[in-house]
Amino acid sequence: MALYLVQHALSLPKDKDPEKGISPQGRSDALRIAEVAKGYDVAVSRILHSGKKRALETAAIFAEALTPTGGIAAAAGLNPMDDVAKAAETMVTETGLMIVGHLPFMERLTAFLVTGKTEKPVFKFQNAGIVCLENDPEKGGWVIVWSLIPNIR
After folding, report:
1. What is the pLDDT at residue 139?
2. CATH code, 123
3. Residue 135 included in any domain
4. Quick one: 61 exposed, middle or buried, by C-beta within 10 A (0-12, 13-18, 19+)?
5. I want to staple 125 with a disulfide (CB 3.0 to 4.6 A). Which of 7, 60, 71, 130 is the partner?
6. Rounded Cα–Cα distance for residues 101 and 135 (Å)
7. Domain assignment present for 52
8. In the chain, what are the helix, strand and coil shares in percent, each to the nearest 5?
9. Number of structural domains, the chain?
């Protein structure tokens, strides 16, 4: 069962856009990563996002490239400080689900799924990057399988 976690694309500063929509660089990064994912035939069933402008815009870019059969929708519980354990219970049962959200939520959710704890990050997210996790019962839970990120540092 694959789960795709995406930190929203780089946003504009609040003084340029009070809703913090994505910046031109963010749009470019998201388009590039989405096209690479499309080239690898990443199968996304549905995209959920936090409802914030930058997450919605990022989700729309990924949806355009990956054409999820279930479309895109805003979902409660994906804001930066929301409870990752609750999200894990309700949102990680659907194979091919992509979640577009924010830090620190995305790093905390990944850590929780992989280790059962939220305190120590197990992956450093980048804006517009994808982290693919799979639930592997033979290994005893979730593992990070691959990632696509805009910058190798």
Report:
1. 75
2. 3.40.50.1240
3. yes
4. buried
5. 7
6. 20
7. yes
8. 35, 25, 40
9. 1
Give me the DSSP letters along 37-86: HHHTT---SEEEE-SSHHHHHHHHHHHHHH--TT-EEE-TT-STTS-HHH
143 inside domain: yes
**Which amino acid is residue 40, in one-letter code?**
Y
List pLDDT tens digits, range 40-93. Answer: 999 999 999 999 999 999 999 999 999 999 999 999 999 999 999 998 887 677
Q: Is residue 153 part of a domain?
A: no
Which amino acid, residue 137? Answer: P
Neighbouring C-beta atoms of residue 67, cutoff 10 Å: 11
Its pTM surpasses 0.85: yes
Q: What type of residue is 20?
A: K
Distances (CA, A) of 153 to 11, 42, 70, 104, 124: 20, 24, 34, 20, 11
